Amino acid sequence: MIVGHNSAVTSVAISNSETFIVSGSLDKTICKWDIISRTQVLVLKDCISEIWYLSLSNNDKYVVSGSNDCAVHIWDLDNPHLVSDLSDIEYAIEGIMNEQVYSFFND
Q1: pTM score of the predicted model
Q2: Sheet with 39-44: strands ordered across
Q3: Which residue, among 31, 72, 23, has the nearest Cα to 48 in the 3D structure?
Q4: Residue 74: HSE in the Cβ half-sphere, 13 Å Cα cutoff
Q5: What 8-state DSSP symbol labels residue 44?
Q6: Cβ–Cβ < 8 Å for 70, 84
Q7: Predicted local confidence at residue 93, as pLDDT
Q8: Mean pLDDT of the chain
Q9: How many domains does the chain have?
Q10: Which helix (H) or strand (E) holds 11?
Q11: Residue 87 contacts by C-beta under 8 Å, 6 or more apart in sequence?
């Protein structure tokens, strides 16, 4: 078992290179894990909301996170920082896949 988050893990994505995974949690963090050593190599703690969805860019340089507070963030994993904040989405985020954000109106 790998320990690192302080709350439930809600999303996991494996890198295209298959060398690391990222995980998002209700503790408002994103962790990067080395697959071979099974160790945590990075923690992004600047997330404002609980992380519900994650997707990695095709080049494994960026992770896109989404939450149900209508916020999407793009994070640089090589030089850890927030690259973009897309917080003006009208509806709750329901998924992120292949750098595409899915948002649906819940009636």
Answers
A1: 0.80
A2: 9-14, 20-25, 30-34, 39-44
A3: 72
A4: 12
A5: E
A6: no
A7: 54
A8: 81
A9: 1
A10: strand 9-14
A11: 70, 71, 72
